[in-house]
Design goal:
Strand order of the largest sheet: 1-2
Number of helices: 3
Oligomer: single chain
Strand content: 5-15%
Low-confidence stretches: 1-15
Number of strands: 2
Largest sheet: 2 strands, antiparallel
Number of domains: 1
Radius of gyration: 15 Å
Order of helices and strands: HEEHH
Mean pLDDT: 82
Distance between the termini: 44 Å
């Protein structure tokens, strides 16, 4: 019983960490905002909005994105 609870807990935590199993991966290798190559400005930033994973080249892009996310999320469709 202890093993089952441990496995169940691990599965729940993994689901929370990824935003759930319905999260669509961001497949581009460029920033959704600037089209800069991911990694060109340091470690890319990854966020989940709704059910869509999004990646940014830097933290300032996240703030700009959050002012009008629907404008940029169109790129993922």
């Amino acid at each position: 019983m202890k093993k089952i609870l441990t496995l169940l807990s691990a599965a729940v935590l993994a689901s929370c960490a990824t935003g759930g199993s319905n999260v669509k991966p961001y497949t581009s290798d460029t920033c959704i905002l600037t089209d800069n190559k991911l990694g060109s400005m340091g470690t890319p930033v990854t966020k989940v909005y709704g059910n869509q994973e999004v990646k940014f080249c830097c933290k300032p892009c996240v703030a700009k994105f959050e002012k009008d996310p629907q404008r940029y999320l169109k790129k993922t469709q």
